Structures are given as structure tokens and as C-alpha cells.
Amino acid sequence: MTRDELIHQIKIKRSFLCVGLDTDINQIPMHLLDHEDPVFEFNRQIIEATADLCVAYKPNIAFYESMGAAGWESLRKTWRILPKDCLSIADAKRGDIGNTSRMYATAFFDEQRSGLGFDAITVAPYMGHDSVQPFLQFQGKWTIVLALTSNTGSLDFQTFANTEGVRLFEQVIQKTNTWGNPSNLMYVVGATRGQAFESVRKHAPDHFLLVPGIGAQGGSLQEVCKYGMTADCGLLVNATRSIIYASNGTDFAERARQEASALQREMERELAAKGIV
Amino acid sequence: MTRDELIHQIKIKRSFLCVGLDTDINQIPMHLLDHEDPVFEFNRQIIEATADLCVAYKPNIAFYESMGAAGWESLRKTWRILPKDCLSIADAKRGDIGNTSRMYATAFFDEQRSGLGFDAITVAPYMGHDSVQPFLQFQGKWTIVLALTSNTGSLDFQTFANTEGVRLFEQVIQKTNTWGNPSNLMYVVGATRGQAFESVRKHAPDHFLLVPGIGAQGGSLQEVCKYGMTADCGLLVNATRSIIYASNGTDFAERARQEASALQREMERELAAKGIV
């Protein structure tokens, strides 16, 4: 999915919601456990219930990997049913030396080889340019680099500052900026970071930001929009637990839709206020 | 495998060699492609040929993941035949927010759930304490944190220095040090980093270091030992391509053994010079 297509989807759906598919077999409704592949069945119903309300889906790979080869198969089946009008993001946070990052890129981008052909992948920047560039080299795909994450541990290293007061996450944005462009590179910036969005926008005025931390983690959508929204929207705001685990009864998909719908309406107001829709 | 057991193995094998199993189906000898699972068969023969010469094996997960569920199955079969007197390291470079890192730890440590029960995993520190601690919480397992890696990109962020001249990799060691101890925590330090080992040892005098970058990447074993070896050895030096791809003919396992043996003899000399054996 190109940048123009993504912006188009945001405008027609009046939403910049990304739904996280962090599907834990121990948290899904009991009645699904009778299915041959309960994780896939859960995802299928969540996707069906939310597809018109969001512009992206983001399975976190850890949840699938924790079930070994069977989990990988649930992931493949899930990827295959993701709607083509939604950006598919492998939340994998990978990164390794060059020839190895190329293998990770193959794992998530090259359907012929791995069975998976995601549009985008999250990448950890710690190992530097040769760990990030192999992802950027895949034509028509997106690399989403961790900048300032939503968790408490983000303050351990990401805000480490040099003599000029440049913090590590700013250095990450400045450097990676020169390796990609706003059409193939995004950044992860946590919704819990409020005013740090101003600094992010100084260094990355046009890039899309993938924003976790709304909902269960306590970030504010209004604050994210105030400091992070651009004329093209420039935001994909993710919610996971507040949507997919809104209920663990037989009404889970319906309740997920209600939660997604509430967020979509809030997003529509923000888009309208900025004159984007 | 405990720290004492690891040190014991180093002394009886007179080796601190770790063999990397970065098995790429496009690089293994052609004659193996007739096997039902060529990647596993390659690993099986490499392991059989080198088990008495090394103290650890380290499959890099990217190479298995790039083949989807089938690759995950090759990894599981490989893990099952790793000798019990060798440390098994999942080179995965994972790291995510707390509940997600716990899933990754489950994926590689919890055999009952995922089919894999590695002794150790490599972890990327960028996301801070709650991304690293879930791995450390697994009893009897090792967490190996990236500090200063062997690739050229390591200089992009890992040597970023604060106002006191502390570089990011030193900050990573200082902080993670307080989350684990020399019996459950190691660091990755590239063999190509020479004198930086002195600084690493200042902050982590007793921790084992996992050292990639010997062989194909050009690091020097003598230099690593000069600056990094402790009274307990304190080093696991990895070689991958120089061993497993020493030949791509039918003699590949024999040639792998020759390369591993040459490194083992060099390591024995270093251990003897320090009075460890």
C-alpha cells in the first residue's frame, strides 16, 4: 500500500485506527477453543467486525511465535484474510546485521518464500544502518522504526542525551531519515509521550507515525492529534487490548466493534477539526 | 546450563567456541536438497562433526523464520538434537513491552508451550527494563543483551555519548547490570571492537560475553582474549560462516570440523596462557 493509498483510505474511512491483533490463546473467549484454530477464528471474527472502521491491522508476532509452528500457521492464515484496503503491519521489532536482517525482511515481506507478505514491519534501530536498510530495500513495503516507545522502559535509553541535548530517539529519527523517505519509512512514537511529539515532528514533519499506547496504556488521542497530526493526518493510532478484549464472552466481536467505532468517531472529529475530511 | 557448568565445559573441552547455525537453504550443499528437511539434515551433520569442539550452538532465528512454519519446524528439530553439554542460544534479538517480551520468552524458553527450550536468548535493549526483565525472570535461563555489536552500523547509535562521555553501549551495560547478574546475564560484544573490550570489562568484570565477528567479519581472537578474557574465561566466541560454509561439497561437515578444530586449538592456547587449563 502506497502513501497516497493510505491517505485515501484514511479519508474515506474517516479513521486512522490500527487494530492490534495480539491474540493470546489464554485470553480469548472459552467458546472459541472448540475451533480447530481458535486464534485464527478469534482474529477472523475481530477483523470481520472492525474492517470498515480501521485502516490497519497489526499482529504482534510474539503472540504467534509463543505457540511455535502452529502459531506461525495461525499468523499466515490471519495475514491472508486481512482486507486489501488495510495496511498490514507485522509488529516484529526485528533487527540484525545486514545479511540476517535481509532474512527477516524475507520472512515478513516475501510471500513466495515464507507464506507472509505484510505491507510493513516494525524494526529496532539499535544495530544501525545495515540492520535497517535491508527492510527499506524491499520495493513497495514500509519500515517502521522504533523511536520513542510507550512503555516505562523507553526512558532508560531512548532519552539518553548527548552534549548538544539531542536525545537518542531524536538521533534515531535524524539518521534513519537519511536512509528512507516518507513513502517507505514510519516511526513508532508512544501515545504516552505527549509533548515529545513536537520534537518528533521537528525531525520528521511528513512521516507517518505509528502510535501505540492509547487505551490500556493510558495515552490520550486528543494530545496525540494536537502535537502529532499533519495535513495528511500522518498518524496511525493503534489500540489492541481495549478493542480485542472488550469482552471475553460470545459477544466479543460485537463489543470489539463498539470500541473500534467509538475510537473511529473520535478520530473523525479530529480529522474534521483539521479539515482533512 | 548454569554458569559453573558452562565454565566446567570450557575447561574440559578446552574451548569457548560457539558455532552459529545460520542455515540458509540457498547456501547449503546441493546434495542435501534431496532430504525431506535439508536445513535440519545440514544442521545435524554440522552438530555431529563439531560437538566435541565447541561449548555452545547459536541458531540465528531469522534464517528459520524466513521459511515460515516449515522453518520453525526445522528449528525445533535442530534444538532437540543440540547436545546437552552445550549451551543452546536462540539468536533472536527480541525485545518488546513487558507482556509481549514475556511471550517471546515463552516462545524460546518454554518447551511445553512452543516446542523450544533454549538455554539462552539474545535481546535488544532499546525498549528498556520492562522489555528485558521478562527474559531474566525465567529461572535457569540466560539473557544475552546486545551491547556493542560487530557490524558497521553499531557505530550509528551504540557509541552515542552523553555529557559525561558515557557511550550508549556502556549505559546499556551499567543499567542492565542492575537487572540481572553474572549467572543469568551476558552481553554481545563484537570481535571487531578491539579495545572497547577494556571499557566493557570495566562495567562488567565477571559477565560472560558472547563475541561474534571472528572469521568472515574479520575480528581477531587474540585481541578479544587480550582485552576480554577473565579468570573464568568469560568469553563465548562465535564463528558461523567460516565453519558451516567452509565447503559446499559433500565434505562440508568434515571441513566444518577442520575449521572448528583450528579455532579450538587456538582457544586452548589462550586458555593455557591464562592458566585456565
TrEMBL record, chains A, B:
UniProt keyword list: Decarboxylase, Lyase, Pyrimidine biosynthesis
Say which enzyme class the record assigns: lyase
Q: Please give the catalytic activity noted in the UniProt record.
A: orotidine 5'-phosphate + H(+) = UMP + CO2
Q: What Enzyme Commission number does this protein have?
A: 4.1.1.23
The Orotidine 5'-phosphate decarboxylase domain is annotated at: 16-256
**Protein family membership:** Belongs to the OMP decarboxylase family. Type 2 subfamily.
* Protein name (Swiss-Prot/TrEMBL): Orotidine-5'-phosphate decarboxylase
Give me the gene this protein comes from. pyrF
